[in-house]
Amino acid sequence: MFKRTKVTDGTATGQGPDAENWDGKEVGFRKKSKVPGVMITQYIEKLPEGKSHPDFTRKPIALTIQEGKFAFFKAIVTGDPKPTVVWSRNNGDVSDPARYQSKYDPNSNEHTFEMPHVKPDQADTYKCFAKNEYGQAMVTVVLNVIEVGFKMTKAPQQQAEVANCNFKKVLKRRSKVVPKAEEPEKKEGEIDPKFWELLMSADKKDYERICAEFGVTDFRWMLKKLNEMKREREEEQAEFVKNLSDLKPIHINADGTASFELEFDLLDPSSSIYLYKDGEMIPYTKELGDKMKHCLRKVGRKYIFSMRDLMPEDAGFYQLDVEDVNMFSTDFKMVDFLVKIQEVKAMEREDAVFECVISAPLSKLMWFGKNMPLEQGDKYDIEVSEDKLIHRLVVKDCMVVDKGIYAACAGIKSCNAWLVVEADKGAPKGKKTARKTTRAGGSGTDLQKVAQEQQQILDKEREERKEKIKAAREAAAEAAAAEEPEKTADSGAGKDKGAAVKVERIDKTSVAATTTVAGDSGSGHSAGKASGGAKQDGSHADAGGGHSAGKASGGARKDGSIADAGGGHSAGKASGGAKQDGSHADAGGGHSAGKASGGAKQDGSPADAGGGHSAGKASGGAKQDGSHADAGGGHSAGKASGGAKQDGSHADAGGGHSAGKASGGAKQDGSHADAGGGHSAGKASGGAKQDGSHADAGGGHSAGKASGGAKQDGSHADAGGGHSAGKASGGAKQDGSHADAGGGHSAGKASGGAKQDGSHADAGGGHSAGKASGGAKQDGSLADAGGGHSAEEASGGARQDEPLADAGGEPGITSGLSDIHAIRGQPAELTVKMNTDCDGAWFKDGEPLKSGGGISITKDANIHKLTIHSCRDTDSGLLRFVSGDLSTEGRITVGDVPEFDEDDLHKFSKPVIVRVGQNAAFKMPFQPQESLTVSWFKDGTELKDGGGVKIVREPNHSRLLLRDCLRSDSGEIKIQLKNPFGAVEATSQLIVLDRPGPPEGPVETVETTSSVIEIKWNPPKDDGGSAVTNYIIERQERGHSLWTKLGDVSAEKTSFRDRNVTHGKKYSYRIYAENPQGLSDSLETADSIMAGIMILSGPPGKPKVVSTSKTCINLTWTPPEDDKGVPIIGYQVEKRKKDTNQWLALNAINEPIEDVNYAVKDVTEGAEYEFRVSAINESGAGDASPPSAMACAKNPNMRPCFKDPEDFLVVRAGNSVRVKISYEAEPPPHITWLKDDEPIAPWINVINTEGMSQLVIPSSKRSDSAIYTIKAKNSVGEAFFDVEVRVTDEPKCPGPVELEQTVYGKVAVSWVPSPDQELDDRLYYVVSQHDSNTRMWKTVADRLFANTYTAHNILPGIEYHFRVYAKNDMGLSDPSQSPTWGANSNRVPISSNGVSSMEISFERPPSILVPLKVHTPPKGYQLYMTCAVRGCPTPNVSWYLNNTCINSDKNYYITNSCGVCSMYILRVRENDGGEYRVVAVNSLGKAECSTKLTVRD
User: Fold this and answer.
1) What is the Rg, in whole angstroms, of the alpha carbon atoms belonging to the chain?
2) CB 9 within 8 A of CB 30
3) Where is 221: in which H helix or E strand?
4) What is the pLDDT, as a whole number, of residue 546?
């Protein structure tokens, strides 16, 4: 005996349910589920009756879904008691209710696990556990999430993961072709990557077409590069697949789907296959087939990608990858019909022409005629022009049956038209008209002209692409030649170099050319020009870093002092200007994508490279004396570092935009170390200097604070222009000299403050929306106000010798301005709250504002208000409030709340009514707007795209499609348009019509009498969306299977009176509710309702046993004496086995036994039974009768008898003989077999079974022919039966044939008998004749038992041949051939011997040539009896049976053919037995013969 193996569930921690409820260590027995993939553990070996372990009837299906969609798994679980279902995941928990929700629907018994707004980190293997007290079932399912777009927040994480060697998270699945939303701005002339991908998957015959499409003309270069790329690609493919072949590009199928195919063998069957469209991964299914749009199925080695429900947005570039290697790429294009086919009217036997023009070249259209695809052949001609724009279908030799609709299909676009064929009335009737040479139809327009115009458009686009590629190559050559001189910047005025376009390989990043400009520029963000002013005292004039697209340059100074070039944010190049005294010229931090470098100085003094905002590198310029070159703060993600100095001094690192920290280094010689303005989240500060010279803090673009460092000698500490929302201020100076605040990047106005000595006060270019101004200085020196990048204020720092410009004291702004959106035509109010009562001024876009013109400016203590009474478009702009050195700013944007057209709103408000299973569509047009969000709601719940919901957002409308609507989908549908100015909503109603629900039960019985039954019910809860019109009532009589319709009642009435009932009978009723959509499910009565009261019959008489056998006991009984006045419709019989107490019914009450006797066949041989009977009337079964006497199921004693035996058997010699005889006898008899009344030989087998005996002779011989007798004997008697067995074979052929002519025209044919004639009394002969006239063999005699035959009508001059066959039950023998009988052959010579021929006489008395044979046929068999008679003249033959002439008896068929006398009996009867005699009489005598016929039973 095999033992079950006990197993332990090894679920790891975190992968299964909680430890409290699910220990994961249950000991049990593994069970197999009917659903593949389900693991079942049963806790006990044998389950109690009626109980079961959990199992899944529907398991969750693996899901691949796009990020942000609604993901869910569904499962259906069975088990008794009802199992508890818990979900888990392999890597993580599912306890967060905002991300994971488990639900259960008791109606459908579905367990649902939902993940709204699924995220990539939720991709995992999930487990579903179902558990009850008897076992546990578990199934796993995989969720794959496709990420959408590139997440900026992941860039630092990826860099950290690369640093930690965590490459699995960094590597993401990307297509070679990036999505359109992510692809970088394509440079003019750059070749699309799709070009190479298409070439590697295309046939060579398509190379020219693809090159022409992408504008490539250098085929030699293309082929050389393509071969290199193919070699690389094949090496990559060989790692995953082999035998890649049969690449078929995407095409439209006849069923409206699109598909492409390829064949390959995966080296690793577990390798993943990915599909991309325009570089974005698309989900597909292998199991659900028609439920998803995209499907990838495998047929043998062939992989077929198909796409259904084609839409114009399905056009694109499709790729199939195995792991990270591309296998196939194809381009799916949509074409349109410029000229559609038109209706054609043609005469019979005339050709009809359909023609059209398409928008793009296509080698073949799909033509359909009467919904059948058409191909080139005898009936149809399909023509295509050379440019493949004009397509024609010619229907040749039109007949009336060709009439119908014909269509042309190009992808998802199609057009159709009628072909009308008119009969030729002038044709002669009954004759086919000649075929006409004319053509009917055509579009009626100049197709060639339309095609030429379209071709010109396509050629123009192609030439433009060629020119772009050519220009790009020339520009690349010029850029390469000019690359070396660009490394050193010119001194003096900068040169404006145009952008140089470089064409690189498609897998490298192109670098834009940079532009160098001259002069000081202000740092304004506008498109204007900002320049530094000239200073009279020669002090420096700083040009702030301008963000505009203009040019930023340093100004020239009279005394040759320093002129700084502010950090221009343009796409050009910012470099320091030339100085007359050779002092240093600083290159401000340019925000371009180019390169910012310091200019060369004549005296070798330092040239600082300002903080460039490009993605490139900012480095210090080379100095002649080797002194330091400062690297300004680059805004790239790279690193900005100071250049190396020849004297070993320090090279300053500018403030990069990276996440790091940029600070100035300490210098050994005490010269200054500048910290460039870092745009990171860190802090940029000036370094400490040993000699006390200045340490400049560059303008940090971070959210931190940029401040100047403290100087020991009191020289100035400059605070660079911070790009953050913080505050940029100058550092405190001990000697009271100026503290410069670096240039903020504001879009406002940057101006210098007034100086007491008349010198110039420079205002750094503010990057914020406010205004940066310099503070007033008492000593006349300048105080520069650097422009902060935030909306806060950038002000001059406080000095120890003059606390006038202290920005941190009173007054202050407690509530400033912020960005607002105002509705056009509505008032708007802006409020600024100060901490003290002080005055202030309002500015709009740098211009001062005053009350008037729809604007009111008010002041209430410390609260300042600006009110716009009716907002207009001109009121949009940047508003700024300034109070002293304090300012705050905010932008106001004027616009409108979205609105709907009244007609569209009215149309949308109409309810949409659909039937269950249909799709419901809603469409709402609106005006295109920016920042417009469209949302759809159903009953207040927002709808998301996915599942059965399809939401399409177009610029001017939005559509909602609800697929396969259910009744529960009925409700309010709302669309909401929302922008920053407000929201507007429109509502509609969705009504899903369905059949009504069943009427509410239970069915109440209001009244029941002998003639009436009245029932009542309640209306259905759900009317299916339309009112119930009526109820239909059906009735079933108990004991019958047929339901009969009684009628219907109106919807207002919920009761019915059935007057056609019979007293005592029981009835069941069911009620249907009906509405225009159909019938509901039925409400049926729980129990049958009886008409009147129950009246049961009295007991029948005691049953009597008529007979018994081992398989049947026959009973009879008498009807009951008292039937209580109710007719009896039948009886029910019950049995009870001896020594048991249980009575078993042999028939159901609704299947009564109509007679008073019954044969009980459900018995066991040898068992004893007693029986009782109940009478059944309309009320049911009455009292049971007294039980019968015990009866034993056994056969009664009987004499043996044989059942339908066969008494004759013919077997071919060598085959086995099987004689089967069935019999009945009780007790079982003794069986004996005899052969011709002698015991059978030992090699003959006898097989006896119950009721049958079988005699078997394995290999028979002729000597086995005999009469076999079976003898059955028991104590009651005995029986015999004879079976004649004839073993024979195909007979041997007769001996030589002789011919003799005794009378003119007759030839006697005689032959030697066949050797088998003595062994087979059923053997006879067949004679065939052939003559030279007909040259055909024909049978002239059959069933001849004699060895002679007389041929008649033998003519002279004709050759005759005869064949003689022997025939028996096995068939014909080979023939014996006669000699040729002709005119001069085989004649009997007549010798006269001197006697005249007239003396010869042929007369003779009758004689019997072949006598009759003895026959012993079985009763009912046919019989032939034959003899041969000769005599001249021909004797008269008579047949006698027991001395009675039977010639005229119709029961016998008697013939006489040339002396062969035959008698045929169709079916032998008992009275046919006796003595048969044949008497032949002529004038010369008499002859007779006789035989005896014995008829066997």
Assistant:
1) 57
2) no
3) helix 219-237
4) 36
CA dist 1183 and 1176 (Å) reads 9
Work out whether the CA dihedral 525, 528, 530, 536 comes out positive or negative.
negative
Judged against a pLDDT cut of 70, whether residue 772 lies above it is answered with no
Residues belonging to the chain:
1497
According to DSSP, the residues that pair with 1488 across neighbouring strands are: 1479
The reported pLDDT for the residue numbered 1170 is: 94
Within 13 Å of residue 491, how many CA atoms lie on the same side as its CB? 20
3-state SS track over 1080-1095: CCCEECCCCEECCCCC
Look at strands 982-993 and 971-979 and give their pairing.
Answer: antiparallel
Distance from the Cα of residue 581 to its chain's centroid: 79
For residue 328, the cross-strand partners are 320
In whole angstroms, how far apart are CA 232 and each of 235, 236, 248, 273?
5, 6, 22, 20
Look at 428-432, 696-700, 1071-1075, 1105-1109 and tell me which has the smallest mean pLDDT. 696-700
Q: Which whole number is the average pLDDT over 990-1002? A: 91
- Comparing 344-348, 787-791, 1246-1250, 1451-1455, the range with the smallest average pLDDT is 787-791
- DSSP, collapsed to helix, strand or coil, labels residue 1406 as strand
Q: Is 121 helix (H, G, I), strand (E, B) or coil?
A: helix
pLDDT band of 1189, cuts 50, 70, 90: very high
pLDDT in tens, 676-728: 333 333 333 333 333 433 434 333 333 333 333 333 343 343 433 333 333 33
Average pLDDT, the chain: 74
Name residues whose C-beta falls within 8 Å of residue 1086's C-beta, 6 or more positions apart in sequence.
Answer: 1002, 1003
Q: Which residues, other chains included, contact 436 with Cβ-Cβ below 8 Å and sequence gap of 6+?
A: 347, 349, 350, 351
**β partners of residue 1004:** 1016
On whether the CB atoms of residues 1416 and 1491 are closer than 8 A, the answer is: no
Per-residue pLDDT tens digits for 976-987: 999 888 899 999
E runs forming strands in 896-981: 912-915, 920-925, 933-938, 941-942, 949-953, 957-962, 971-979
Token representation of residue 1377: 């051939």
Q: Is the dihedral of CA 1253, 1256, 1262, 1264 positive or negative?
A: negative
- The 3-class SS string of 1241-1280 reads CCCCEEEEECCEEEEEECCCCHHHCEEEEEEEECCCCEEE
> Once rounded to an integer, what is the mean pLDDT over residues 279-288?
72
Residue 1205 CA neighbour count, 13 Å, CB half: 27
- The type of residue at 679 is H
C-beta separation of 616 from 593 below 8 A: yes
Closest residue by Cα to residue 601 from 627, 624, 575, 573: 624
What's the CA gap between 656 and 677, in Å, rounded? Answer: 7
